[in-house]
Amino acid sequence: MWWKRRVYLDYAAGARGNASSPHEEGRASKKVLEEARTALARLIEAQADDVIFTSGATESNALAVIGHVRALREEAGKDTVGRNNMHVLYLRSAHASIVGNVELLAEEGIAVEPLPIKDYRVDTAALAKMLRKETVLVTMEAVCGETGTIWNTREVAAVIQSANRGSDFSAPSGPGSALGQPVASKSSSAVVLHVDASQAPLTEKISRAHFGADLLTFDGAKVGVPGIGALIAHRTITLAPFYRGGGQERGLHPGSETPERAREFAAALLAAANSRASFRARAEKMRATFLAEIAALSYMVVNAGKHQAPNVVNLSFLGRDTDYLVALLDEAGFAVSTKSACETDSVLGSRAVMALSGDPERARSTLRVSWGPSVDKRTLHRFARALTRALAFVDSHASG
Question: For 249-275, what is the mean pLDDT?
Fold first, then answer.
């Protein structure tokens, strides 16, 4: 009775099907989206409903930091004490999308403090003394994007959970009582831990329990799928949207979803997880060989702690113009940077290295070398030779 050939007449909703549309094409898009959500949730060991797709790590971090605090403020009402009597702790070396949004909270009257750092770790003994009744959020990275430092997120989570149990904070109960699991009921007086795990997938486990996090950020660009990210957040953790529109992604990222990109994102994270052990082992050997090849550079300092992602090497070439060095290496065919791409225009040097070392000269003269699975040891060897030649050119140019 019906003509079977499909004719798509809903371009106003989307050229290839909108996941919110009720017709067959819409249902097909919705299926792709939800399968991607489920696959990502299984990988992270969370519930599918915990996965909120976003445009990338910057939005995910903003939702976690600003979204959580503003939601608590709205719950508290409009009185000055309820609105502003909150305390947030953050990692000073974290990505700009964390630090910048914490600074924005400070402008809005929220008390903010940097986390204490000792030997490239969060000093948990000092942290325990800093937590107070007004503390609502601790935000940090899993892996520093500039130095490769692997942060002790589980130790921080243990301190937070101890504080939540031992004072006026709401005690965890039910399935949320285990480390790394979302607390079943998060009141406005409980401390929430947000971890930006954008840099983790290539070399670290990415389950929520591994990080001990309540809120967890991932970024598609770091696994080859730009334009998408995810915030892992249990529904019991209150969040406020930045804008309103449709009800997509629990109303926190309103707008048409991108099912195919979500599928690519989930597949890329799974591929990274499956190859993590082999890539890490290979990267550790490549790192050691690379550093041995340039060890004769007496003015070089390696900005690294005991716990490092092996595929990120941060070097300070004291007294050298590393912006010029990057340009020379670019001409030689090697793409490297002095700092995070989001802070390339900063004239103050590496904020992360400054936070970790306290040395302005080291922060001003950094070079970040990082690689993925497609880079082999021969390529890194060629880069070591090019780097040595470029540095010799820099020195001769400066003296001549």
Answer: 94
Contact by Cβ (8 Å): 48, 34: yes
The answer to whether residues 291 and 241 belong to one domain is: no
Mean of the per-residue pLDDT values of the chain = 89
What's the confidence (pLDDT) of residue 378? 97
Helix 24-44 crosses helix 259-293 at what angle (to 10 degrees)?
Answer: 40
For residue 195, which of 224, 232, 222, 169 has the smallest C-alpha distance?
232
As a whole number, mean pLDDT of residues 371-394 equals 97
Amino acid 293: pLDDT: 97
Task: Render pLDDT for 35-70 as a digit per residue (tens, 0 to 9).
Answer: 999 999 999 999 999 999 999 999 999 999 999 999
Q: Name the domain count of the chain.
A: 2
Residues with Cβ within 8 Å of residue 15, at least 6 apart in sequence: none
Query: pTM to 2 decimals?
Result: 0.90
Q: Are residues 106 and 35 in the same domain?
A: yes
Q: Which of 223, 254, 270 is the last residue of a domain?
A: 270
Q: Determine the average pLDDT of the residues in 290-317.
A: 96
Q: Which range marks the domain in which residue 209 is found? A: 24-270
Count CB-CB contacts under 10 A for residue 175: 10
292 and 371 belong to one structural domain: yes
